Amino acid sequence: MALFLRGLCLLAGYLFGGFLTAEVVARCTAGVSARDIGTGNPGMANIATHLGKKAGLLVLAGDVIKTAAACWFCHQLAPELGLTALLYGGLGAVLGHNWPIWYKGRGGKGVAVTCAWLMLYLPVTGVLCCLAGGVAVLLTGYLPVGAVLIAALAVPVGWLQYGTEAGAVLALNAVIMVTRHWAGLQRIHRGEELQFFRPKL
Q: What is the top-level taxon of the source organism (predicted)?
């Protein structure tokens, strides 16, 4: 039964995560699909860069809300799982955001969704992981570095707080994050990646 509930939370999270906020914002703001804007990634950074900060904030807000809704729904769906319901609901939201079946698997990279999930599942330490990732972006100027660092830091944190299962699920998420940002990491290595949010010294 416990395994079934975990699967149910994963599926529910996937359904919530598959709602691409960037797609809605792009169509309402510019009348085109998010895939026709900039890099084609339906995420906050791409939308903010090409449609403005307000549009980017709307995408961020939508991604946070859908992740929170997924976690809340899963907690209501399987209260006997406790925080484990959030663990699987959040992972499902990441999977749905990254590979939504109704958009032919062409989703975002899951950074905002992952951050929202970690802050809900690991209220204090998850926030610290996200702050560390933000600092990494400010210092390097590279978004992929911060994204991968956030997910990687959450693995030992989750394992120490909640045990092996949490560590394993968060490790899977870290692998997903590296996979989604692998092209960007390679561009960084070649010196071709664009730098964002780097303060002038």
A: Bacteria
Number of domains in the chain: 1
Residue 198 lies in a domain: no
- What is the phi/psi pair of residue 102, to 5°? -80, -5
Q: What is the pTM of this model?
A: 0.92
* pLDDT score for 197: 53
186/179 Cα distance (integer angstroms): 11
Residue 135 lies in a domain: yes
Contacts of 32 (CB under 8 A, 6+ apart): 26
Strand runs labelled E in 51-194: none
The percent of the chain in helix, strand and coil, each rounded to the nearest 5, is 75, 0, 25
Which domain covers residue 63, as residue numbers? 1-190
Mean pLDDT in consecutive groups of 10 residues from the start of the chain, 201 residues: 93 96 91 86 87 92 96 96 97 97 89 97 96 94 94 98 97 97 92 67 42
